[in-house]
Automatic annotation (TrEMBL):
Residues 18-176 form the SUF system FeS cluster assembly SufBD N-terminal domain. SUPFAM superfamilies: Stabilizer of iron transporter SufD. GO terms for biological process: iron-sulfur cluster assembly. This is Fe-S cluster assembly protein SufD. InterPro entries: Fe-S_cluster_assembly_SufBD, SUF_FeS_clus_asmbl_SufBD_core, SUF_FeS_clus_asmbl_SufBD_sf, SUF_FeS_clus_asmbl_SufD, SufBD_N. Residues 184-413 form the SUF system FeS cluster assembly SufBD core domain.
Amino acid sequence: MVQTTDIPVMALKEQITENHHEFLESLHHRFLDEDRKAALQRFESMGFPTKKDEEYKYTSLKEITEKAYNFFPKEHHNITREQLDELHLGEENFDWITFVNGKLHKELSKVSIENVEFLSFNYALNDEKHRDVFEKYFNTIAEDKSAFTNLNQAYCKYGFFLKVPKNVVIEKPIHVFYISQNQEENTFYNTRNLLIVEEGAKVEIIESHHNFDSTYVLTNSVTEIFTYPNAKADWHKVQNDNDTSYLIDNTFAKQEKDSLTTVNTFSFGGKLVRNNLDFIHNGSNINSFMNGITVIGKDQLVDHHTAVHHNFPNCESYQNYKGIFDGKSHGVFNGKVFVDKIAQKTNAYQQNNNVLLSEGAVIDTKPQLEIFADDVKCSHGCTVGQLNEDALFYLRARGISKKEAQALLLYAFANDAMQNIDIEPLKEKISKLLAEKLEVDIEF
C-alpha cells in the first residue's frame, strides 16, 4: 500500500513573494515599480499582524492568511442586468460604476457626471496627464501605515480615481460596485480608490462589494480622500457580502479648513471584516463624522478601528457606532481621538453601544482619548448589555409578541446611527437591511 502525505497549501505571505515579479510584468505603469518593490519589502519585514500585535489583539487573521489565493482574477463573467438590479438601491437618479473581477465595465455602468476627472485606477496610472496628480496625492496619507497598506501599494491595480474641481457640486450620488464572479479559485483583490474634492466642491460615494461564488474572496482595499476648504465629501460603505468573503478596508481622510467629511459604515455580511478609518485634520473649523451599524450572527467577525487626529483648533469630530451580535459572532471597536496641544476648542464625541443577543456573542470595545490641550470638550463611552426588560414588558403588554418586541427595540437602538444619511434611497435600503436582519416588519 502506497502511503500519501498531504502537501500543505502555500500560505498567503509566501504566495505574495512568489507572485510579485509576475504581477509587475503584467503592468504597464513602470514609474511605480520601485515604489511597489519597496512596499513589498516593508510588508515582508512586518509580516501579517497576529494577536500579539496590540492593534489585532482581538482579531485573528489565521483563517485568511493560511488560505491560497489566485492573484490574477479571470475576467470572464456572465453578470445579468437582473442580478445587478438586485444590488441597486432603487436609485434611478444615481450614477453607478461597476467593476467585475477587477475590471471597469462601462456597459454595466451609468456615468453622467460632467466637469470632473473620472478614470479607472489602472487607466489613470497609465495616463501621462495624471502623472503629476498621482505623484502629489497617491499614498501620501496611507504610506507605510500597516502590513495591509504596504501590501496594497505593492499590488494595487483595481479601483477608481475621481477629482471634483473647485465649486463643482455633484448632485447625483455615485454607487461603486465591486463584483467577483466565475472564479474557480480563492481570489485576492487589492482595490485602490483616490478621491480629491477641491475647494467648495461636493460629492457622495456609496461603495459595496459582492462575491457571487462559493470560493473565497479576500479584498484588501485602500481609499484616500482629500477634502479641501469648504468642500464636502461623504463616503458610505454598505458591507453585506456572503459568508465566503473577507474584507480588509483602509480609509484615510485628510481635511483642510472649513471642510466636512463623513464616513458611514454599515456591516451586515461577510465572514471577516476589518475597517481601519483614519481622519487627519489639516486646518481649523473642520467637521468629521463617523457612524457605524453592525448586525451580525453565526461566527462572523466585524472589527472597527478608528482614529481622529485633531491637529488644529476649533474642530469637531463625532463617532457613533452601534452593534448587535447574535450566535457566536464577535465584534471589536477601538476608537482613538488624538488632540494636539495647539488644538484648543476641540469638540470630540465618541460612543460605542452594543447589544448581545446570545451567550456565545462577544464584543471587545475600547474607546480612547489622548488629549494634550486644556480647552476642549471631549467625551467617550461604551455600553455592552441586553435589551431593556421594562421596555420589552411595555410592548408585550400591548399585544406585541416577544420576538417582534425585541426586534422593534433593536431597530430603534440602531436607528440613530444613520440619521445623518441625506440620501433617501440609501437610508431606506439600510433600514430594510436592518429590518431583515432583525426579522421585523416595518413600513417605510
